[in-house]
């Protein structure tokens, strides 16, 4: 029992015991029960207020109650049915006004919204109760005090003796006004000693004493110094044995004011409360030898119950020889459940306020009435809470019911993701909460949260299923004790609303592109390629592009990247694949794979440069996972790559090295080689990439390829052009050619013209240029007529051989490969038609053949000399490249006095005529 100066009453809901029969009830109601006045303070009225209770005496002074004053003066304040406050005053309480068999008690209640009791409202309640007749001895065992009152009887003989002389008495005791009786002292009988206390000392020690017209009263708090614990039939009693001395007129009289109250005796077995009270306790019956029960009755909340009522509630009251037993099933009508917490766990206790009245008569003390009030609270019992998930998938709302709770529980806080918020604050997090009340004095809480609230954890499970998890801790407070407990609510709803990321891939000439459209489940998925996490930092290192604008993830990987896998090599290109995996950001579990394959024939793979240098890049194939790119070689195994990466090897070499093979035909030279890989100790290559460089005279030539079986692969050839030139020089030294701006070149009759035919590329020293026919025409078109032959099959024209001179070509600064050049000199007589020198422009043309200086079986062996009458072509079954070169325009003048601007005059010299 707790009574503090200020009672905080926090109440929710409505009063259970409320009766609405007489209109709206006031804040307090009273009831006379046995020798008590009970005043109930209604919860609904005093809800949430700070209270202070006082007893008001007859002169109107309010005595504020605290625990000590209450137990000394006969007051009890307790909760009834958990939320109402009940005030009980004994008939003989300090401030009650007793008149005959009626006692009147007045209380004052102050209620304020603040603990300092400012602006308190004051409520007075006064009520009178009739009680009687009084038994000679009445004992009350309240929850906070023991009380005994004994009729004061002046023996008959003494009465007769004193009845005549009231005045004398006043004279003898002047301080004793109006001859009223008063207590003089109390003597406590303790085992070791007798201790006498004067009234004032007894008051100071917490005892309550009074004398009324008819009775002597002693009230003892359970914790008073002179109480002793005694056992009777296994039950412990608190007892105070005392004699009270009082003055009446000129006499001092003494009464025995022993009081005995049981402090235990309650057992719980088989869902039953068993309350045992031994009868005729020694301390109350000293000297008596025969006893007779006059009345044994019991009830709840000071209401006596008839045998019929007890039976209907399944109570059992049995009165045996020396003991009274009351059995009440736990949960029976009359009591109530309240919520309780043990080790943080939710449970309940059953509470019932029983009372027993035992009246007996014995041969020494006459009639005794013993009233025992027992507030019983059963031990803690765990009560499981159920969490029901009624989530509404179509409305996308988590709807969870948590229950069942008793009405003394209130939801106050929610802890969401580690943050504690009050119920009103939780609304801002999308939480909606309300109570559902049930008829049996219980309730449940409904919590609703939209699926898309930030605190709802979404998780992708499989296929199109996502789970939504509500994970919230509910914090409750229990009224009126303010105990707290919390309930973890974790509920899961599976919804088919997952959208997986999708991808679109494409390739351009040099890159593989993958565009991933994010779904709603992949926020934390990370892109990986070949075990590498794709990050903006790694993008720089591995030379790919990565961008994510929130809805799309775009990745571009260049064709030659270690992120790509090369599946095969084919004439039409290299099949490259990008395999991207999205992994869970936490568990790294594979969630989704995307692949894209493209065939590339990028120009960089092979390059055939004019100076005869070849760049070839070989790629590692997936099926040769152990291939070490640095060990790739060319036909000549000494030719190693000049640049290697994890998946590529690039070689740089000249066409006349590294075992390169040559082939000729009428329009081109083909250089062939291959990149090969040998496993150690194995002579046949596991990897063979064939490639060619094709130098053609006309670049329109298309080349046919054949696919070879593995392990040999080949790629489209690299193209180069076979370039020829026919230049005019100013003199025999062949050091000063006519430049473009100097054309048309003007020459006079008899003057010599120096011509040079050159193979410009490829710069392969193993090639030789040989002249076939050279001739001159009037127009740029080499086939136009008339034609003046200069060389035929590489020989000077027989008709005017003295006019054409072939010059040997030697190595010089300008001439690295003399075999690539042919020079000859022509005199200007050759081009006279009749007697008239040519008035038109002249163009020179040569047809050439390219052949080999270091003959291979398949190569054409060059004729070193002019061999008239023999056609070179007939010499070989292998065709060789033929080309043509033409010069710029040349004008012929008759005399060297003619100005350059003057047109040449018409002459009619026959062809081949002499000057
Ligand atoms: C004793 O009882 C009388 C009558 O009820 C009451 O007026 C008086 O205040 C009481 N005195 C004490 C000290 O309790
Ligand atoms: C939530 O569940 C409660 C209890 O089952 C139900 O009464 C209520 O209609 C539900 N609300 C929604 C929005 O589904
Ligand atoms: C509820 O939260 C408030 C403030 O966060 C805190 O003061 C209070 O103790 C909490 N109550 C319970 C029952 O957890
Ligand atoms: C619920 O949340 C708490 C804290 O936020 C966390 O420790 C716990 O693991 C979560 N429980 C579940 C089942 O997700
Ligand atoms: C992200 O990029 C994609 C494709 O590049 C485009 O369609 C989309 O509109 C972009 N979204 C935003 C938010 O910029
Ligand atoms: C041919 O040209 C390339 C590119 O200009 C150069 O790297 C290479 O060294 C040259 N080769 C020779 C033999 O000069
Ligand atoms: C010469 O060889 C190339 C490449 O092998 C071929 O494409 C071309 O047709 C051949 N030319 C002739 C005239 O045979």
UniProtKB/TrEMBL annotation:
Coiled coil stretches, renumbered: none
Bias (Basic and acidic residues): 892-903
Superkingdom per UniProt: Eukaryota
Signal peptide per UniProt: 1-21
Biased composition (Polar residues): 877-887
Descriptive protein name: ZP domain-containing protein
Ranges of residues in domain ZP: 607-869
Lineage, top ranks: Eukaryota, Metazoa, Chordata, Craniata, Vertebrata
Gene3D superfamilies: Zona pellucida, ZP-C domain (2.60.40.4100), Zona pellucida, ZP-N domain (2.60.40.3210)
Region entry Disordered, spans: 869-915
Keywords: Disulfide bond, Glycoprotein, Signal
Organism name: Anser brachyrhynchus (Pink-footed goose)
């Amino acid at each position: 029992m707790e009574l503090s100066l200020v009672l905080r009453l926090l109440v929710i809901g409505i009063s259970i015991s409320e009766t609405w029969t007489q209109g709206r009830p006031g804040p307090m109601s009273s009831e006379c029960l046995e020798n008590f006045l009970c005043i109930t303070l209604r919860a609904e009225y005093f809800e949430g207020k700070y209270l202070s209770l006082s007893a008001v005496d007859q002169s109107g002074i309010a005595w504020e109650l605290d625990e000590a004053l209450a137990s000394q003066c006969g007051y009890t304040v307790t909760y009834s049915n958990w939320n109402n406050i009940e005030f009980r005053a004994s008939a003989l309480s300090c401030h009650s006004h007793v008149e005959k068999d009626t006692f009147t008690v007045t209380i004052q209640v102050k209620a304020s919204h603040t603990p300092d009791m400012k602006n308190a409202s004051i409520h007075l309640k006064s009520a009178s109760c009739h009680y009687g007749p009084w038994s000679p001895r009445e004992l009350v065992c309240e929850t906070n005090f023991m009380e005994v009152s004994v009729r004061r009887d002046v023996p008959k003989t003494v009465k007769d003796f004193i009845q005549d002389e009231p005045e004398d008495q006043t004279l003898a005791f002047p301080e004793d006004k109006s001859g009223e009786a008063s207590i003089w002292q109390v003597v406590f009988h303790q085992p070791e000693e007798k201790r006498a206390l004067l009234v004032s000392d007894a008051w100071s020690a917490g005892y309550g004493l009074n004398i009324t017209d008819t009775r002597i009263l002693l009230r003892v708090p359970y914790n008073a110094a002179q109480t002793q614990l005694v056992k009777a039939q296994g039950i412990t009693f608190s007892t105070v044995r005392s004699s009270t001395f009082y003055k009446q007129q000129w006499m001092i009289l003494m009464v025995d004011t022993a009081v005995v109250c049981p402090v235990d005796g309650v057992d719980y077995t088989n869902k039953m409360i068993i309350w045992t009270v031994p009868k005729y306790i020694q301390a109350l019956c000293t000297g008596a030898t025969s006893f007779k029960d006059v009345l044994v009755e019991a009830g709840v909340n000071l209401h006596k119950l008839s045998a019929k009522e007890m039976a209907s509630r399944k109570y059992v009251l049995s009165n045996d020889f020396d003991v009274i037993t009351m059995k009440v099933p736990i949960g029976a009508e009359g009591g109530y459940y309240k919520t309780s917490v043990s080790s943080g766990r939710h449970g309940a206790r059953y509470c019932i306020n029983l009372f027993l009245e035992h009246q007996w008569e014995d041969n020494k003390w006459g009639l005794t009435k013993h009233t025992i009030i027992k507030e019983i609270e059963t031990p803690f019992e765990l009560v499981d809470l159920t969490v029901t998930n009624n989530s509404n998938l179509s409305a996308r709302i988590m709807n969870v019911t948590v229950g069942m709770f008793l009405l003394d529980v209130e939801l106050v806080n929610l802890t969401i993701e580690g943050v504690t918020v009050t119920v009103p604050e939780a609304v801002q997090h999308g939480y909606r909460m309300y109570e559902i009340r049930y008829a049996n004095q219980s309730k449940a809480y409904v919590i609703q949260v939209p699926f898309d609230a930030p605190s709802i954890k979404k998780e992708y499970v499989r296929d199109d299923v996502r789970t939504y998890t509500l994970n919230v801790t509910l914090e409750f407070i229990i009224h009126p004790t303010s105990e707290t407990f919390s309930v973890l609510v974790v509920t899961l709803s599976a919804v088919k609303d997952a959208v997986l990321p999708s991808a679109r891939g494409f390739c351009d000439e040099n890159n593989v592109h993958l565009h991933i459209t994010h779904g709603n489940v992949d926020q934390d998925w990370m892109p990986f390629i070949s075990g590498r996490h794709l990050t903006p930092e790694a993008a720089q290192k591995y030379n790919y592009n990565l961008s994510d604008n929130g809805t799309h993830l775009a990745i571009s990987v260049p064709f030659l990247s270690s992120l790509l896998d090369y599946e095969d090599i084919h004439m039409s290109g290299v099949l490259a694949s990008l395999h991207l995996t999205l992994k869970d950001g936490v568990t790294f579990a594979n969630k989704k794979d995307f692949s894209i394959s493209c065939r590339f024939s990028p120009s960089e793979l092979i390059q055939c440069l004019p100076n005869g240098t070849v760049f070839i890049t070989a790629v590692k194939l997936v099926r040769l996972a152990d291939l070490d790119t640095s060990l790739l070689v060319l036909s000549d195994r000494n030719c190693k790559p000049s640049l290697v990466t994890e998946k590529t090897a690039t070689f740089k070499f000249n066409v006349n090295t590294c075992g390169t093979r040559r082939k000729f035909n009428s329009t081109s030279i083909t250089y062939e080689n291959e990149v090969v890989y040998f496993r150690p100790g194995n002579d046949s290559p596991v990897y063979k990439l064939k490639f060619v460089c094709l130098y053609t005279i006309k670049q329109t030539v298309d080349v046919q390829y054949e696919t070879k079986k593995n392990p040999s692969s080949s790629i489209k050839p690299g193209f180069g052009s076979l370039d020829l030139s026919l230049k005019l020089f100013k003199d025999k030294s062949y050091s000063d050619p006519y430049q473009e701006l100097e054309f048309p070149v003007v020459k006079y009759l008899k003057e010599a013209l120096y011509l040079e035919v050159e193979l410009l590329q490829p710069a392969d020293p193993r090639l030789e240029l040989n002249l076939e026919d050279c001739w001159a025409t009037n127009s740029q078109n080499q086939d136009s007529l008339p034609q003046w032959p200069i060389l035929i099959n590489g020989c000077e024209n027989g008709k005017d051989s003295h006019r054409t001179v072939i010059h040997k070509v030697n190595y010089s600064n300008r001439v690295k490969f003399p075999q690539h050049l042919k020079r000859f000199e022509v005199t200007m007589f050759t081009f006279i038609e009749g007697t008239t020198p040519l008035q038109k422009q002249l163009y020179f043309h040569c047809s050439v053949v390219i052949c080999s200086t270091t003959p291979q079986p398949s190569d054409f062996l060059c004729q070193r000399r002019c061999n008239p009458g023999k056609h070179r072509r007939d010499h070989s079954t292998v065709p060789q490249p033929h080309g043509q070169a033409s010069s710029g325009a040349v004008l012929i003048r008759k005399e060297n006095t003619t100005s350059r601007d003057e047109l040449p005059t018409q002459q009619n010299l026959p062809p081949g005529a002499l000057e």
